[in-house]
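Q: I'm building a small set of examples for a reading group on sequence design. Run inverse folding on the following structure and report the sequence directly after it, with nothing in between.
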């Protein structure tokens, strides 16, 4: 019997969904620059997490000529219940994708690029070789561009992790997303300890790489649980952190349990900085790659460069 898609299972719905507060609404208008970015991605047969995940910051980022490239197609082999990316069988790996990404970055004149991907549990290398090939292509085409990767957990495959680390990105980001208690509901197929071990391994293998992680808030986590996660991340020597509000993509996804107000995000930022994070971006619309280049600028000014 075919197993149901977790992403389309009925979830316990509120009698009346929480009303989206004004501070969680993006005010950036859609303009010609954003449409130009979309046309470029279609022309090069590339995907962006900005579009696929329905990021609220898309008009702002596309409008200023920045994009987070999503490698290995637009279909994910997992079914996280917060994510709008399609679930199913992964497409064949496109051998031309690394070159197309590198040429797109050169065309856009990007000084900092973020590469992410869908989960590809169906591939023997978990998709890690495509990250490495894309980094190599970028170094050749745009040697002055800094590179940030936002990878899946690769199912804990240390060879896959090492393959990406050894390719030499400037920033290695892997999001823990939520607190351990909520993993079975929010991230079936993932594990908090696995994600933590990945981040620790990256830093142990190449200490010059800036490590980064992030959480979505408003899924039912408690403040004390968030603090414990932040302490665990610092224990794994994670240096940069993003904290943002979970926004429900569709009624098929997990409901928002609570909308945090902007002051709560400011308090969390101060707490994280007191724990020793070198850069913290915290706010309702913060996402892991939103203004990602700013972290590098701040750390460079403080004398900490990748």
């Amino acid at each position: 019997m075919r197993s149901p898609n977790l992403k389309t299972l009925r979830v316990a719905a509120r009698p009346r969904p929480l009303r989206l507060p004004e501070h969680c609404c993006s005010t950036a208008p859609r303009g010609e620059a954003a449409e130009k970015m979309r046309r470029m991605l279609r022309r090069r047969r590339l995907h962006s997490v900005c579009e696929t995940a329905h990021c609220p910051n898309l008009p702002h980022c596309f409008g200023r000529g920045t994009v987070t490239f999503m490698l290995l197609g637009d279909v994910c082999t997992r079914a996280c219940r917060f994510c709008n990316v399609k679930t199913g069988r992964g497409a064949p790996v496109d051998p031309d994708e690394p070159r197309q990404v590198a040429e797109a970055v050169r065309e856009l004149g990007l000084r900092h690029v973020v590469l992410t991907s869908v989960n590809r549990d169906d591939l023997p290398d978990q998709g890690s070789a495509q990250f490495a090939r894309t980094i190599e292509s970028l170094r050749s085409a745009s040697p002055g561009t800094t590179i940030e990767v936002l990878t899946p957990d690769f199912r804990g495959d240390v060879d896959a992790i090492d393959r990406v680390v050894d390719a030499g990105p400037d920033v290695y980001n892997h999001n823990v997303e939520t607190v351990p208690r909520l993993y079975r509901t929010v991230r079936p197929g993932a594990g908090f300890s696995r994600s933590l071990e990945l981040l620790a391994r990256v830093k142990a293998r190449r200490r010059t790489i800036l490590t980064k992680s992030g959480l979505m808030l408003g899924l039912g986590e408690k403040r004390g649980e968030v603090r414990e996660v932040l302490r665990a991340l610092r224990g794994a020597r994670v240096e940069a952190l993003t904290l943002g509000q979970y926004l429900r993509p569709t009624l098929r996804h997990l409901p928002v349990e609570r909308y945090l107000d902007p002051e709560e995000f400011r308090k969390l930022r101060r707490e994280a900085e007191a724990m020793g994070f070198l850069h913290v971006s915290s706010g309702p619309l913060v996402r892991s790659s939103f203004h990602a280049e700013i972290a590098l600028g701040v750390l460079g000014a403080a004398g900490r460069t990748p």
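Residues 6-13 have pLDDT under 50 and may be disordered.
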